[in-house]
Write a structure and sequence with these properties.
single chain; 327 residues; alpha+beta; Nucleoside Triphosphate Pyrophosphohydrolase; 9-stranded mixed β-sheet; 6-stranded mixed β-sheet; globular; hydrolase
């Protein structure tokens, strides 16, 4: 099956996004931090984006990239003349599931250290998608955690989009000195709200040890502290005094068995490393998604949970349980 692609409406009709160009930049990203609003059409195996409304657009979502994104400065810095970006490739599409329990916690998994891409990072379940976007995300949730969500027992809503480029074996290239991007994709974060509690979901989890080495559930207060470190380059704001020093997690052994793990809060708050080591931390895109989740949660509860600077309100409607395939 052909790889899922990202299409842009730039001159009146959809065209493939170029590997060598920043999607944020092409859609009008200005200097400074985003996110930037984009209009989206969510189709099986593809995502159509535009800075303006267009026929078929079904959502208006925030699009963000890391503040240290090489594409933002790629054409401003000298590099090896022999090093070239591909001109015959497009931008791939990934889907990640932010799974919320009925008691308002979200699931994160730590990718196995043996994986060739993004080892040892804390992320939500997900992967490249080549079929219906929700179905692809739910399939990855099942493959990684063993969780199958019965049809009619969850609702979902698109949260936002994250542009990321990765080098060989790593999802993040904070510095051009680490090499030019090898891969370029847009991650669509989908919030899936289960009718089951954290305890009920946890009891059904059967993690895949080839993909997942640990998992944990974050409460809103912990998620807010993690999201506050999103920019990855500055010391986080003053953290709440009642923030716990650690959170409970589950570590996955090679044979698939599990054991309790005390995960230091300092690991979750860790920012971008200064060396190209596979340091355990929460990915920058995940921090962005947690911030969007908190905004959504605050609107649903009539409260304000502050993960950082005030953000624009986005046009996102919660889709009812009947729209979830549970596949």
């Amino acid at each position: 099956m052909a790889a899922a692609r990202v299409l842009l409406v730039l001159s009146g009709r959809p065209e493939s996004a170029s590997f060598a160009r920043s999607v944020c930049g092409l859609l009008g990203a200005r200097p400074g931090l985003g996110p930037w609003p984009v209009h989206c059409s969510l189709k099986p195996g593809r995502l159509v984006l535009s800075s303006r409304p267009f026929p078929g657009a079904s959502a208006r979502l925030p699009l963000q990239r890391p503040p240290f994104c090489p594409f933002a400065v790629l054409h401003q810095q000298p590099r090896d003349p022999a090093a070239k970006l591909p001109t015959d490739r497009g931008v791939d599409l990934g889907v990640a599931i932010i799974l919320q329990s009925s008691d308002q916690t979200v699931l994160l998994t730590r990718r196995a250290r043996t994986l060739s891409v993004s080892p040892n990072l804390w992320v939500p379940p997900g992967e490249y998608s080549e079929d219906k976007l929700l179905d692809g995300g739910l399939r990855e949730l099942w493959e990684e955690s063993g969780l199958h969500l019965p049809q009619g027992q969850f609702s979902w809503v698109p949260l936002g989009l994250w542009e990321v480029r990765q080098g060989a074996g790593r999802i993040c290239l904070p510095r051009l000195s680490w090499g030019l991007p090898k891969y370029h994709h847009i991650v669509l974060y989908l919030l899936v709200i289960s009718q089951e509690s954290q305890q009920q979901l946890q009891a059904r989890i059967q993690p895949n040890p080839s993909e997942v080495s640990a998992l944990t559930w974050l409460t809103p207060d912990v998620a807010a502290a993690v999201a506050a470190t999103e920019d990855g380059t500055k010391t986080p704001r003053l953290l709440p005094e009642d923030l716990p020093p650690s959170v409970l997690a589950v570590e996955v052994e090679e044979d698939g068995s599990t054991r309790p793990l005390v995960l230091p809060m300092s690991t979750l708050l860790r920012m971008i490393p200064t060396t190209a080591e596979d340091e355990e931390r929460v990915s920058t895109g995940t921090k962005f998604a947690l911030g969007l989740w908190l905004q959504h949660l605050g609107r649903r509860n009539g409260a304000h949970l502050d993960p950082g600077p005030a953000k624009e309100e986005w046009n996102m409607d919660l889709l009812p349980p009947s729209r979830g395939s549970g596949k």
